[in-house]
Amino acid sequence: MKFPLGCILIFFVASCSTKKDDNKNDQLPKISLLEADRSFSQMSAEKGMKNAFLEYIDSNGVLLKPNTLPIAGASAIDYLIQQNDTGYTLTWQPHQGIVAESGELGYTYGIYSLKASNADTVMYGTYVSIWKKQQDGKWKFVLDSGNEGIGEMNK
User: Fold this and answer.
1) Closest CA to 39 of 116, 141, 124
2) CA distance 77 to 25
3) pTM (2 d.p.)
4) Per-residue pLDDT band at 8 (split at 50, 70, 90)
5) What sign does the CA torsion over 53, 61, 115, 108 have?
6) Per residue in 10-52, pLDDT tens?
7) Which end of the chain has the least Cβ crowding within 10 Å, N or C?
């Protein structure tokens, strides 16, 4: 009787430690998604919003902008190419990211800041991006939207 009980105890302990490792592995896609969003923001700060968006948009990506219909695919890319981002800096910080169990889709959301080059005022808003993992393992957004309205703060 002691031997089977010992086997059961060993099996139980082994399965608990496996679950701990599984939880760590479950976090890896979320970590890589949040890192992609932070890198996206960093590129926007360093090379401009236009360059960052063109780098991180999926070929079928959709932009949701105020007072306009959704802009999708090649039209979204054309829209980004036409943008002049020399007068401001757009950055953001993700507050959370969730990845589907399949690891192929995820979303991030957080707070963005928009600072005009010639002003001390910074405007803040919220954003959400839906991401798709590419065949090369990189994340690209398939939908991006932001909302104004958190306010402004003087530095």
Assistant:
1) 141
2) 34
3) 0.80
4) very low
5) negative
6) 333 344 433 444 455 667 899 999 999 999 999 999 999 999 9
7) N
Helix/strand/coil for 114: strand
Residue holding tokens 């690209």?
140
Show the CA angle centred on residue 107, arms to residues 20 and 46, nearest 5°.
105
What are the φ/ψ torsions at residue 28 (nearest 5 degrees)?
-60, -45
What element of type H or E holds 155?
none
Q: Kindly report the CA angle at 92 between 90 and 96, in degrees rounded to 5?
A: 160
Provide the pLDDT confidence category of residue 120 given band limits of 50, 70 and 90.
confident
Instruction: Specify whether the CB–CB gap between 105 and 131 falls below 8 A.
Output: yes
